[in-house]
């Protein structure tokens, strides 16, 4: 009986992951949540609740996923939602386009919004770490030059905001 409990606890801790893995998982989940908010015109609160209740800690393709840092996830999603116009302005300035020209690819836009929010609002987190994690998210969904765009925008924001 003791052996079984220990095994269950060990597997539970394994899916929780290290703080770095939980932060990376929070960034990925935040991008997905912001994308859902943008494409389905939902509130941040509804999407955050849905993710926490139905998506965190799930098994995907037979593999246990790392549980995202819930506070970090919530902070990013709420921050983008509450300061959307400010984040849009940051991205427009960094990419050299007018604020009124929204990117045509909503998922790519969600990645940049989340990255911009963290650059602006998380001075205690190393900028290159933020850029690296959002590049990993970009590579998870895209195979072409989108990562160069994300890297360029977030790098300019890093230099401008830090």
TrEMBL record:
UniProt name for this protein: NusB family protein
Per the record's keyword annotation, is RNA-binding included, yes or no? yes
InterPro entries of this UniProt entry?
NusB-like_sf (IPR035926), NusB_RsmB_TIM44 (IPR006027)
Q: Does the keyword RNA-binding apply?
A: yes
Which organism was this protein described from?
Micavibrio aeruginosavorus (strain ARL-13)
Sorted alphabetically, the keyword list is:
RNA-binding
Which biological process annotations from GO are given for this protein?
regulation of DNA-templated transcription
> What's a single GO MF annotation on this record?
RNA binding
In this chain, the stretch annotated as Disordered covers 1-21
NusB/RsmB/TIM44 domain location is 25-157
What Pfam families does the database record attribute to this sequence? NusB
């Amino acid at each position: 009986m003791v052996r079984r409990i220990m095994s269950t606890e060990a597997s539970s801790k394994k899916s929780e992951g290290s703080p770095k893995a939980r932060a990376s998982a929070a960034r990925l989940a935040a991008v997905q949540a912001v994308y859902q908010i943008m494409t389905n015109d939902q509130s941040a609160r509804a999407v955050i609740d849905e993710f926490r209740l139905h998506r965190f800690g799930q098994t995907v393709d037979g593999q246990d996923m790392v549980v995202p840092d819930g506070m970090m996830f919530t902070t990013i999603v709420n921050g983008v939602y509450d300061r959307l116009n400010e984040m849009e302005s940051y991205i427009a300035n960094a990419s050299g386009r007018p604020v009124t020209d929204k990117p045509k690819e909503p998922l790519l836009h969600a990645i940049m919004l989340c990255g911009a929010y963290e650059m602006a609002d998380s001075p205690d987190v190393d900028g290159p770490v933020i850029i690296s994690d959002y590049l990993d998210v970009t590579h998870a969904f895209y195979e072409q030059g989108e990562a160069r765009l994300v890297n360029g925008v977030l790098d300019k924001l890093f230099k401008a905001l830090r």
